[in-house]
Amino acid sequence: MSKPSKDQMLYMYRKMIEIRQFEEAAGTLYQSGQLPGFLHLYIGEEATAVGVCVHLQDEDYITSTHRGHGHLIAKGGRRDRMMAELFARTTGYCKGKGGSMHIADKETGILGANGVVGAGIPLAAGAALSAKLRGTQQVAVSFFGDGATNQGIFHETLNLAAVWELPVVFVCENNRFGMGTPQSEHQRIEDIAVRAPSYDIPGVTVDGNDVLKVYAAADEAVTRAREGGGPTLLNCDTYRFRGHHIGDPGTSYRDREEVQEQERQRDPIRRLTEVLTEEEGVSEDELSAIEAELAKELESALEFAKNSPEPLPEDALNDLYAGSIQP
User: Fold this and answer.
1) Within 10 A of 247 (CB to CB), how many other CB atoms are there?
2) Angle in degrees, CA 10, 77, 202, rounded to 5
3) Where does the record place Basic and acidic residues bias (predicted)?
4) Which residue among 95, 105, 222, 320 has its CA within the 20 to 30 Å range from the CA of 189?
5) Residue ranges covered by each domain of the chain
6) Helix intervals (H) in the chain
7) Long-range interactions of 178-187: CB distance < 8 A, separation 24+
């Protein structure tokens, strides 16, 4: 199993803290009535986004989901512009028009979070096809949940990507519930990776809450794609520590004790902290300093968002087309 260096581990620690801080702040803001729209938190799943995206270059692509903040930050999204988007301000990535579920930034290869289940899967394949036709070594990664693997577009896209040997990695974030429906109630299979052999591509299941294991599995999958070996399906066994959305207590379909046990045993940040302190000689003071630095950056991001202007009514019809439309 490939192992990251100490510096890479510290980088991944920083990214997971960035995500956790952002999500906790967003949840607080939403509950206090300061954010419009819907909010789906990524708390507990940080290891999957970070363990995969650490292998991606700036020009590589990702597609995301309604629970996309973690993916965007892991790929290089700025927290100030993301927060401005959540506040529906003009300095946001989509000028305040996309909100939490539809942030996109072509400059960093973020082809969009998406409120439609499974909709990012074919977009990633399209980006991968573009890269192959242009002869680049770009890779596309699509993040999606277990529920999306029941969608027809999942099967159609994996089949086409396999036939055309596209440089794409399909990452299923199996947090065990499709909204409030346990996986066992919507699928006969337990391991989603077993669907990969149907398309003659590798299927790998990994502990999605262990960033080092995700790192190793993603290293192989991304390298395979970049070198022309075709797609891989990664099934990351993870768990969200919050409800499906911010207004969902999550108690109707899972026991509170289950959630508490997951938080105690499988918090991805705590697990990496133990490796850094016990095996890599990093002090708790060093990690605390990183957290404090990032918390200060987040405060600046919040001020940036709150002080940014709101869109004007006449902005509603702007950005509807890629280019100018002549009368």
Assistant:
1) 10
2) 70
3) 253-266
4) 222
5) 6-305
6) 6-31, 46-53, 69-75, 79-86, 120-134, 152-163, 211-226, 256-266, 268-278, 284-306
7) 178/145, 178/146, 178/147, 179/147, 179/244, 180/244, 180/248, 180/250, 180/252, 180/253, 181/147, 181/253, 182/253, 182/254, 183/146, 186/147, 186/150, 187/146, 187/149, 187/150
CB 56 within 8 A of CB 75: yes
In the structure encoding, which two tokens stand for residue 52, read together? 């995969």
CB 103 within 8 A of CB 93: yes
C-alpha–C-alpha distance, residues 177 and 148, integer Å:
11
- Render pLDDT for 31-66 as a digit per residue (tens, 0 to 9): 999 999 999 999 999 999 999 999 999 999 999 999
Per residue in 207-263, pLDDT tens? 999 999 999 999 999 999 999 999 999 999 999 999 899 988 888 888 888 888 988
Contact 275, 212 (CB under 8 A): yes
The CATH number fitting domain 6-305, selected from 3.40.50.300, 3.30.450.40, 3.30.70.20, 3.40.50.970: 3.40.50.970
Distance CA 42, CA 242 (A): 8
* Cβ density class 142-161: b for 16+ within 10 Å, e for less: bbbbbbbbebebbeebbeeb
Token pair listed for 7: 């510096």
Tokens representing 118 are 């499974």
Strands 181-182 and 177-178: antiparallel
At 73-124, the pLDDT tens digits run: 999 999 999 999 999 999 999 999 999 999 999 999 999 999 999 999 999 9
269: left (phi over 0), alpha (psi -120 to 50) or beta: alpha
Name the token pair of 267.
Answer: 């918090």
